[in-house]
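Researcher: Please predict.
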Amino acid sequence: MITAAPLALLYLASALLAWIDLRRGIIPDWLNLTVAAAGLVRAAVLDGWMTALGGGCEGLVVGAVVWLLRRLYFEFRQFQGLGLGDVKLLAASAIWVGIAGVPMQLLIGSLTALATAGLFHLAGRTVTRQTSLPFGPFLALGLLVTVTLQQEGLIG
């Protein structure tokens, strides 16, 4: 029961952040903090505070790496390709799925975003390299699918 509450909070926060990002193009910090805190609580309850601390450190590493990639992309293209809310969401997500789970989350998020862009194109909407598409909903979906696959033992 106690471990179900953080998971329910993750699902609720993911749905809310997807909705807000789609409508306003921003992921509020308090939602990213909710995802991170729920992950830390879950890790602490299931495996102890040392595991939670390790998860927090993995989140910091992922956040730093993604922030650096975001910065380098801007230096080369003079255009932001990823919002800071997405960077923070990936950092918070790493607490849940670990560094090893982030590539799966990114794969699922990227493929669903690509499929959505394809559907927009098929529906007659103009889609170019400059078309803005909030990535938060796709990252949230990738997180939820990855967490579920890990819980079912289908991925490590």
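Model: Residues 67 and 143 are 18 Å apart (CA to CA).
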